[in-house]
Amino acid sequence: MLLFIIPVYSSLHAQGTELGIMAGGSLYSGDLSPQEFGLYMEDVSPAFGFFGRFNISRTFALRLGLSLGKISASDADHGREDRGLNFRTNITEFALTGEVNLFKLGSYQDRGVMPYLFGGVAAFHFNPEAQFDGDYVELQPLGTEGQGLPGYEAPYQLTQLALPVGLGVKFLLNETITLGLEFGGRKLFTDYLDDVGSVQVNYLDVLEGNGELAARLSNPTLKDPGPETADYRRGGDFKDWYYFGGLTLSFRLQGNGGGGFGRGKGIGCPTF
Q: Considering the domain boundaries, does residue 191 fall inside one?
C-alpha cells in the first residue's frame, strides 16, 4: 500500500497543489419557493469556505473543501401568508469534487482564462428552525409531519449526502495566483431541508402524538380544525436544493510544479 501511495502523492505534488478560500453567497429553493428553481435575492445569505485543489493534469483537478453558509425562506416573502411557514438553517458541507477544464484562453503557461465544470459528492449538516413568538425553535425534534408516530415516517437525519454540480471560470493571474468565479447546486436525497415534505399530515395526529407546539408549527394558519379539515399536505412537488456561489482565490504552493496547465496559444483544449 505504501508503495502505491508514494507515487500517487508524488504525481499530485508535481502537478501542482493549491490552497484557497471562497467568499460569496448561499441560497435555497424548495417547497417554500414560488418555483422549484429560481434566484430570490431576499433569501441570499453570506457563505465562505476553504479548499485544496490538486491539479492532476491540464484537464482534470480534484478539490477537497469545507463550505459554510446559511439558507432561509418565508411564505410571507412570497405571498403565501395563507400557509404561514418559514425556516432557516446553517449549512456545513465537506465536499470532494472533480473539476474538468474545458479549454484555455491565453498564450502563456501561467496566464489565461479557463472555464470548467465540476461535480462530486458531499456530506452536509443542517438543522432547520422556525420563528415562533419572537424566537427560533428547532423543528426536527418536534416531528411537525408526524415523524415517529405510527403510520408516519421516522425522524429525518440532520447529516446527509449530496451531489454538488456546477460551473465556473478560473483566471490564471500568474504562476502562483488563480482567481475564480463559480456557482453550483446540490442535489439532495432528503426533502426536509426546510422541514417541509410532501406527505399527507393529520393535524390531530400531530397534536395528540407530538404536542401542541409541533401541531402549531406544522400548520400555523389552521384554526380549530375538525375531522373534515385536519388533513393537509404542507409542501408540494418541488424538491429541495441549496446553492453556493462566489469568488475563489487560490495560491499554488511553491516548488510543486506549474499545475499541469502546459503551454497553450489562443484557444486550446487541455489534454491529459
A: yes
Domain that includes residue 182, residue range: 16-268
Chain-wide mean pLDDT for the chain? Answer: 86
User: Nearest CA to 262 among 110, 114, 103, 99?
Assistant: 110
C-alpha cell at 239: 424538491
Residue 14 has pLDDT above 60, yes or no: no
Burial 139-148 (b: 16+ CB within 10 A, else e): bbebbbbbbe
- What's the average model confidence in pLDDT over 7-31? 75
Residue 3 lies in a domain: no
Q: What's the CATH number where 104 sits? A: 2.40.160.20
**Mean pLDDT for the stretch of residues 152-156:** 95
Judged against a pLDDT cut of 80, whether residue 269 lies above it is answered with: no
- CA–CA distance, 19 with 264 (Å, rounded to integer): 24
Per-residue DSSP letter, 41? G
8 is a domain residue: no
The residue behind cell 498564450 is 107
How many whole angstroms separate alpha carbon 255 and alpha carbon 252?
9
> Rounded CA gap, 70 and 73, in Å?
11
Q: Evaluate whether 26 touches 71 at the Cβ level (below 8 Å).
A: yes
Say what the pLDDT of residue 250 is: 97
The pairing of beta strand 60-74 with beta strand 86-101: antiparallel
Residue 6 covered by a domain = no
Cell of 175: 504562476
How far apart are alpha carbons 84 and 80 in whole angstroms? 7
Query: Which residues, 6 or more positions from 1, have their beta carbon under 8 angstroms from its beta carbon?
Result: none
Other CB atoms within a 10 A radius of the CB of residue 42 amount to 10
Q: What is the pLDDT of residues 90-118, one digit of tens each?
A: 999 999 999 999 998 876 777 899 999 99
